[in-house]
Design goal:
TIM Barrel; eight-stranded parallel β-sheet; three-stranded antiparallel β-sheet
């Protein structure tokens, strides 16, 4: 069996920086035409000048024949100014701003400590039509880690949505039925869905032993939530589109007493999504989810090139070279069901 679709885009991607780019960029460029690049580096991308410089480093790491396009974002902090938002909205290579609650995930220490204080920033983003990308989790120590997405929606996101009705918002890497419902119920609101949250539930992280390469934030949830995500992804609703949240960490950073959060899925991302849609008997909906709805939301043209997938089993290697270390891919212990021709 073969399936040809318009070349897809990845609307949520971590590439890291420095020598890591020599590994990460090529994997994404092989299958995606464009990607929204997350700004949470060790030194975060907090303004347009840093975004432009980071973009050049990504382009320098591309294979010679690639025409992959990195779409840059800036990292919101307590000190982000209205003027910086204005400049970002006018820069041809900046496409969104990302909200990380401080301490929510990898390299989020510089994130926002008081979301409600960002009202002037959201007002300017609405005025300039610069999309807001949200890591929707509270970091309150008294909130259970499995409830942090719903708590963020209730505490902050619902108010942002009400106060700024024209602001385009992406609830990134949605993981719960509540997140799906929020997106469905609100205008100018979308969500990205990751392969790990569509394929796995929290048993795949914890049952029979801790599996560090399945650990990500937001954390995997109950099976009822996974099924809600699959239903949304395969529904043909343009509010839901592909965003891998592929997040590379060296193997030794994952396999230790306090392992890093993040699943590296870029080695086989579109193949993993094809498996989800195939299992749901919805392969006819894969192209919209992967190739159409993201560019439509970001008001960009759809791609012209195509990509062909074949239903052929293959096994990812145990690891890939990652600078002077190794990188363990997601699902490397289980055969993948689709491959790129």
């Amino acid at each position: 069996m073969q399936l040809t679709i318009t070349k897809p885009d990845d609307w949520h991607l971590h590439l890291r920086d420095g020598a890591a780019l020599n590994t990460t960029v090529a994997f994404t460029a092989k299958q995606f035409q464009r990607a929204i690049i997350m700004p949470n580096l060790a030194q975060p991308i907090v303004n347009t000048a840093l975004a432009a410089a980071y973009r050049q480093r990504i382009l320098s790491a591309l294979p010679a024949s690639s025409d992959f396009q990195p779409l840059m974002t800036i990292y919101l902090t307590n000190n982000t100014s209205v003027e910086e938002i204005r400049q970002a909205s006018q820069h041809k290579d900046v496409f969104a701003a990302k909200l990380y609650p401080a301490g929510a995930t990898t390299n989020s220490a510089n994130g926002v400590t008081d979301v409600s204080a960002l009202s002037p920033i959201f007002e300017e983003m609405q005025k300039c039509d610069l999309p807001l990308l949200v890591h929707a989790e509270v970091t309150d120590v008294d909130i259970d880690i499995f409830d942090r997405e719903q708590a963020f929606i209730d505490k902050y996101l619902a108010a942002i949505r009400q106060d700024f009705p024209q602001l385009r918002i992406v609830l990134e890497h949605a993981t719960t039925q509540q997140a799906i419902d929020f997106v469905l119920e609100n205008h100018h609101t979308a969500a990205t869905l990751t392969p790990q949250h569509l394929l796995f539930n929290r048993n795949d992280l914890l049952a029979g032993g801790v599996r560090p390469h399945n650990y990500c934030l937001p954390i995997l949830k109950r099976e009822t939530h996974r099924l809600a995500l699959v239903k949304a992804a395969t529904s043909g609703n343009p509010k839901f589109f592909l965003g891998t949240d592929s997040a590379p960490h060296a193997t030794e950073a994952k396999e230790n007493s306090c392992g890093c959060a993040g699943c590296f899925t870029a080695h086989a991302a579109i193949e993993l999504y094809a498996e989800v849609f195939d299992k749901a008997k919805a392969l006819d909906k894969l192209e919209g989810f992967s190739s159409f709805y993201g560019p439509d939301f970001y008001q960009l043209p759809r791609n012209k090139q195509t990509l062909t997938l074949s239903k052929e089993s293959w096994q990812a290697p145990v690891n890939y070279t990652f600078d002077s270390q190794t990188l363990t891919p997601f699902r490397q212990d289980t055969p993948l069901q689709w491959t790129i021709k």
